[in-house]
Design goal:
Number of domains: 3
CATH superfamily of the largest domain: Carbamoyltransferase, C-terminal domain
Strand content: 15-25%
Radius of gyration: 23 Å
Shape: globular
CATH class of the largest domain: Alpha Beta
Largest sheet: 9 strands, mixed
CATH topology of the largest domain: DHBP synthase
Bound molecules: fe (ii) ion
Number of strands: 21
CATH architecture of the largest domain: Alpha-Beta Complex
Distance between the termini: 57 Å
């Protein structure tokens, strides 16, 4: 009986769909934002009606049973659950008082938006999928499963890791009950060690959202990245640190705070908020201090987890695991020897977690050895679209270079060209890992301005990342550890910083991607060619998008960016495409 496990991430933001077969192999995983070209895909269902028939036909052609698994428990009334987790009023209290009267550190309209979207997302979860399965696979059985939100985060982290055994921390904004959960992972089983619960639960995710807001950025747009970038320019603001410290005090796995509800405490921080008309740089001390407080607090939690679990391996997930600045510090601050962060640690990754939980539920004695997840599980550029483009193109130069695409591209990179680089299947997770990337020569600091002025149009304080060949990474990074998904920020050795100025942040760090041949042979070969020409075993790698948009999804998306920005060259698999003025 051919059975497929379809995991859906159905929370109101970063929805995603994953397909796993009856061997536990990931056939497909992709966030909805890519297909819709709508950053974070707020309030958009993961099972988009128009694309489902094609997806199922491609990946589940011989299905006899579908298991649909979602990343939120349906049994608990969502409104009540979310409000409880946020530490506001109970649902009846909310109805009586009205949302405008809530004391919230977050803007009321945003809160209302979040609640309403989340409610409808859960209530309507999988409706499209069921309809399409019934229409196209009328004889197929359908089974349903819903899992604790934080358990799906943990499953994503653990099942995607190379570990047989690990301690697992999920540090999030909120789930059905609270904001954090801790697990022991062994023999493909997850045992919950502790879950924060109840009204007024402390939430580091909400706390970081508040810090983002204080810096003048928008957490709803996912601008927490900007806090990390800006932090490098700041210094300690002791008054702000003490104010944060008074709000969240860690004791074991528990958070304590003085007022009953976390949000009452967070509201006290408003005096530190950057004025809207002042430049972002004025919030650098708030960003630095907020990031430091976050790092100190998570360190306390992880030290306790290490003490309880007595395990050397850590699998980390939840929205807070996107904090690459901190991720790189973990092994230096806590006794864990190995740290794994999945390619999609936030809610998009939960689609995989939910699917995997359903799979393991059916296969409790899975003998498959653990392996690091290949993150290239998304869509391909449509081959027919490429053929049509080549046939009808009258304006761009196209060269087909199946044997020399890496040499040719590396040569252009050394000439200072900015290259859009598309290969194979798209990455699952927020980072471009060499299949949907914009690449540049990392040697000269001016390249940063170049990319910002010609393509990205983003703030100057945000750094660009290096993709480095694993064999040479130790020469460039202090206390080097593998960072396969660009998930860790490490210190660049002082004597190397000048050599790779474009990927060295102002504080001497770089958020690196480790590149190994077995993980991505084409990208490895390209960097190796560049290394041969320049003696630098790395490239500047930034996501193939423009500011405010997700990574490109179709050929048309790629051409739109190519033709409307200063991108010099576009590479799609073996095709090298350039603009006529460059002849
Ligand atoms: Fe989450």
């Amino acid at each position: 009986m051919k059975k497929y496990y379809i995991g859906l991430s159905v929370t109101y933001h970063d929805s995603a769909l994953a397909i796993i077969d009856d061997q536990g192999e990931v056939l497909f995983a992709e966030a909805t934002e890519r297909y819709l070209q709508n950053k974070r895909a707020l309030n958009c269902e993961p099972d988009q009606l128009l694309r489902l028939p094609e997806l199922l036909n491609q990946y589940c052609p011989s299905a006899e049973t579908f298991v649909i698994a979602i990343n939120w428990r349906k049994k608990r009334p969502l409104y009540e659950a979310a409000i409880s987790a946020l530490g506001f009023l109970s649902a009846p209290g909310l109805l009586k008082t009205g949302i405008k009267k809530l004391r919230s550190p977050l803007e009321n309209y945003q809160l209302h938006h979040m609640m309403a979207c989340q409610h409808s997302s859960i209530e309507t979860a999988a409706i499209n999928l069921v309809r399409i399965i019934q229409e196209y696979y009328p004889t197929c059985a359908i089974e349903f499963a819903d899992y604790d939100h934080h358990l799906t985060h943990a499953a994503t982290a653990c099942y995607s890791s190379p570990f047989d055994e690990a301690a697992c921390a999920v540090i999030d904004s909120f789930g059905e009950n609270g904001a954090m959960a801790f697990y022991r992972y062994k023999n493909r089983k997850l045992e919950c060690l502790h879950e924060t619960k109840g009204l007024g639960t402390g939430s580091l995710g909400l706390c970081y959202m508040k810090i983002t807001e204080l810096c003048g950025f928008d957490w709803l747009k996912g601008e927490e990245w900007k806090v990390m970038g800006l932090a490098a320019y700041g210094k300690l603001n002791q008054e702000f640190y003490d104010a944060l410290d008074a709000i969240i005090t860690i004791n074991g796995f528990d958070c304590k705070h003085p007022a009953k509800h976390l949000t009452e405490n967070l509201a006290k921080l408003d005096r530190f908020k950057r004025r809207k008309d002042s430049p972002a740089e004025q919030a650098a001390d708030i960003a630095y201090t907020g990031q430091l407080f976050f790092a100190d607090t998570v360190t306390k939690l992880l030290r306790h987890l290490h003490f309880v679990s007595q395990c050397d391996n850590l699998a980390l997930a939840g929205g807070c695991a996107l904090n690459s600045s901190y991720n790189g510090q973990i092994t230096g601050r806590v006794a864990f020897k190995n740290v794994h962060i999945p390619s999609a640690p936030a809610d998009d990754g939960c689609a995989l977690g939910a699917g995997w939980l359903a799979y393991h539920n059916d296969h409790p004695a899975n003998p498959a050895p653990p392996k690091l997840l290949n993150p290239y599980s998304g869509s391909r550029i449509d081959a027919d679209a490429v053929k049509r483009f080549i046939k009808f193109n009258r304006s761009l130069n196209i060269q087909h270079l199946p044997d020399s695409i890496c040499d040719a591209t590396a040569e252009l990179l050394t000439q200072g060209r900015l290259i859009g680089w598309i290969q194979g299947r798209a990455e699952f997770g927020p980072r471009a890992l060499g299949n949907r990337s914009i690449l540049a020569d990392p040697r000269h600091a001016a390249v940063q301005d170049h990319i910002n002025e010609k393509i990205k149009f983003r703030e100057m304080f945000r750094p660009f990342a290096p993709s480095v060949l694993h064999e040479y990474a130790d020469e460039y990074f202090e206390n080097y550890q593998e960072s396969p998904y660009m998930d860790k920020t490490l210190r660049i050795r002082e004597d190397m910083r000048e050599r790779i100025a474009a990927v060295c942040h102002v504080d001497g760090t770089g958020r690196l991607q480790t590149v190994k041949k077995e993980w991505n042979p084409r990208f490895y070969d390209l960097i190796a060619c560049f290394h041969q020409l320049t003696e630098i075993p790395m490239l500047l790698n930034t996501s193939f998008n423009v500011m405010g948009k997700p990574l490109i999804h179709t050929l048309e998306d790629a051409l739109a960016v190519f033709l409307t920005t200063g991108l010099d060259v576009l590479v799609i698999d073996d095709y090298l495409i350039s603009k006529p003025r460059d002849e």
